[in-house]
Specification:
By secondary structure, the protein is mainly β. Helix content is 11%, strand content 46%.
């Protein structure tokens, strides 16, 4: 259906039956042809045409994402064609349009020259946005607007106007690729004269951020280039400063390029550059309160606070402990943390022997060659991610002395009764069996809790 609409609109333009058509050269966007937006009297499917009121014309171009990877916003810059023949008053027409319920309602009101000629004129909507991979996509749409004015036949015969030599930004980059707030950084861009016949000269490039997140780090924000020959390129570089309170995500720097052809005809184009800005992560924590020693068979609750002292959100904050003889019921999931917030990590650790440790799947394993009691050392690891999915970890060294289990008085009396012919090795057997039974019971309880949690639809320990 969408392809049919495109064919019909193109045919209407060719035969002069209507004043508008639109097309796109690939990308994630397409025209939303069924709805009416702003003061549209008709949808694109019904034959929408821009509306002229006096000396201005209003153009509406509703766009929508052709795939599920819809960008949060797009930047739109107008190309009004040849300034000597177009009926429009040239200006810097650039807007950033947010995704509103799946639609980007692009709308411009263009002032018309008083000495204009009547006719149908193209308006190119140069859209730019970032896809899911962070790449910049440039996608043009063209709309034809019919305006009134003096008859072109009344214009004295003159030489046919030259086509505009197109000057574009063919590529750009930053160093580093993801800019950190509070830092200055260079931007490298390549200007390309795409014309095969005409040179361009007297080129002035003005660069500007939004004034809130990105600022010029040089004494000027203008670059001058004497000439770029047809089909050739020119590399430029300039320095920007990302403010410390910059919002993390995609930020826009706009290049305004003014230039002339060999007949001194002036042109102006705008090129948006999309830059990625991140905030440095800053996670801090209280020192965990862990006793200097504990008896085998004890269960220790270990809890401490973590703090997000950065300006960006932290994701999937997780805490786990790993040390011989210390067997946790599971990891502590703190979750996502907004800037300036805190969370509590709570771990419950069963104290076994130095020969006991926990596998990656949570099961217990023993090493009979190891000592049972004594000093154990390990780490508490805090893992988390930033808004770009980059992983981070912080480690806390932990250690404690594992003492033999406390045997009750009744058990000690029982142990004193056997004859001297029976060696004391059986005491270790009893103690070891008791510890293994305790660990097995603790793990059974943990498994039962997980099954219950999964049954309740929670899925967390």
């Amino acid at each position: 259906m969408k392809r049919l609409i495109s064919i019909v609109l193109t045919a209407m333009l060719v035969f002069g039956a209507a004043g508008i058509t639109a097309f796109a050269d690939g990308g994630l966007l397409e025209i939303e042809s069924t709805g009416k937006y702003g003061d549209m009297a008709k949808s694109y499917q019904e034959g929408y045409a821009p509306v002229q009121t006096g000396d201005s014309v209003k153009v509406v171009l509703p766009l929508t994402a052709a795939t599920a990877d819809a960008p949060a916003s797009i930047t739109v810059a107008l190309d009004l064609g040849d300034a000597s023949t177009a009926p429009f008053v040239f200006n810097n027409y650039t807007k950033t349009i947010a995704n509103t319920n799946g639609v980007y309602p692009v709308e411009f009101e263009l002032a018309l020259r008083t000495d204009r000629c009547s006719g149908s004129y193209p308006i190119v909507f140069n859209t730019s946005y970032a896809n899911a991979a962070g790449e910049t996509i440039l996608q043009p749409f063209t709309v034809y607007a019919t305006v009134d004015g003096k008859s072109p036949a009344a214009t004295p015969t003159a030489e046919a106007p030259r086509p505009q030599p197109k000057l574009i930004v063919s590529k750009y980059s930053t160093d580093p690729a993801v800019v950190e707030a509070g830092e200055s950084f260079p931007v490298h861009a390549t200007l390309e004269n795409t014309s095969e016949k005409y040179d361009v000269r007297n080129i002035t490039v003005t660069y500007a951020g939004d004034g809130k997140s990105l600022l010029s780090a040089d004494n000027t924000n203008t670059i001058y280039i004497d000439k770029i020959k047809r089909g050739e390129t020119e590399d430029i570089s300039f320095k920007l400063q990302a403010r410390l309170d910059s919002v993390p995500g995609i930020q826009t720097v706009t290049l305004t390029i003014a230039y002339e052809d060999s007949k001194a005809t002036a042109y102006t184009v705008t090129e948006p550059l999309l830059l990625q800005v991140s905030q440095p992560v800053n996670l801090e924590f209280d020192e965990p309160d862990i006793p200097d020693s504990a008896n085998a068979g004890d269960t220790l609750p270990i809890s401490f606070n973590v703090f997000n002292k950065g300006r960006s959100k932290l994701y999937n904050v997780m805490v786990k402990i790993d040390a011989p003889g210390l067997l946790p019921e599971g990891s502590a999931f703190v979750g996502n943390m907004e800037p300036g917030t805190s969370g509590t990590a709570e771990l419950y650790v069963f104290v076994g022997t130095l020969a006991m440790s926990q596998s990656d799947d949570g099961s217990m394993k023993t090493d009979n060659s190891s000592e049972k009691y004594g000093y154990t050392q390990g780490k508490i690891t805090i893992s988390y991610e930033d808004e770009f999915g980059n992983p981070y970890t912080k480690e806390i060294d932990v250690g404690m002395d594992i003492q033999p289990p406390v045997i009750s008085a009744s058990t000690e009396e029982t142990q004193e009764k056997p004859a001297d012919t029976v060696s004391q090795w059986w005491i270790s057997v009893v103690i070891g069996a008791a510890l293994i039974a305790a660990v097995t019971a603790a793990m059974a309880v943990r498994k039962k809790r997980r099954i219950k949690a999964l049954g309740d639809g929670d899925g967390l320990d």
